[in-house]
Each structure stands twice: as structure tokens, then as C-alpha cells.
Amino acid sequence: MVKKQTKIDIVVPKYYNNKEPIESSLIQYLRDLLIGQCGGLSVSDSKGYWSSKGKIYIDENMVFSVVTKEIHEDFIKFIKEYITDELKQKEPFIIKSEVDLL
Questions:
Q1: Residue ranges in the chain assigned as alpha helix (H)
Q2: Measured between alpha carbons, how far is 83 from 6 in angstroms, rounded to an integer?
Q3: pLDDT at residue 89, rounded to an integer
């Protein structure tokens, strides 16, 4: 039986833009918030490459992935604001997609 679900992938940086490590308590808060709201999550390491003004940058990240029956847009907005304000990221990278859970 196929179940329609919503998947959210949230790229969580390991370092601030000045290369200082992000405090583990800030990342743990986000992790616990997602577990509380969605019941669980998967975490994977990733690298991101991007360019600005002719220079290529490399970011070390984690991807927090959740699959849930439904998720409110206000919650996603809160996550985006948290990453912007607390993790000091200019443009949080969050992907929302509809998936079939097999």
C-alpha cells in the first residue's frame, strides 16, 4: 500500500560563514524540535559547493530529513527563521517534496 507523505530536507551547516564551528547545542535544539514535531529524522553528512564573485566555496553540512503525514507551513517558516537567526545563514536551504512511502 502506497502512502502519500511529505518529505523535508534541511541543510544544516556545521560552521558559521566565518569558519567557526556552530555550537552543538544549537544543532541539537533543531534536531530535537524536528523529532518532537515529526517523530524522527535521518541525518547525513554532505558537502555543498557554491560560487560568488568568481570564487568557489565549499561548505560542510548535515542534511536533516523527515518524512511525515503533514507538516504546517508555519513550522517550516520557524525552522527557516531559526537557521537564519541562530545559525547566521543568509539563505537557508530547505526542500519540501511530496513522496510515496512504499
A1: 24-38, 73-85
A2: 20
A3: 94
Measure the CA–CA gap between 83 and 54, rounded to whole angstroms: 26
Q: Are 76 and 4 within 8 A, CB to CB?
A: no
Q: Please compute the mean of the pLDDT values over residues 28-50 and round it to a whole number.
A: 96
Closest CA to 27 of 9, 18, 36, 15: 15
Q: What is the mean pLDDT of the chain?
A: 95
Distance from C-alpha of 49 to C-alpha of 78, rounded to nearest angstrom: 26
Residue 64 CB neighbour total at 10 angstroms: 23
Residues in the chain: 102
Q: Is 54 left (phi over 0), alpha (psi -120 to 50) or beta?
A: left
- Which three-class secondary structure string do you get for 16-44? CCCCCECCHHHHHHHHHHHHHHHCCCEEE
14 touches 58 (CB < 8 A):
no
Domains and their CATH numbers in the chain? 3-101 (3.30.70.120)
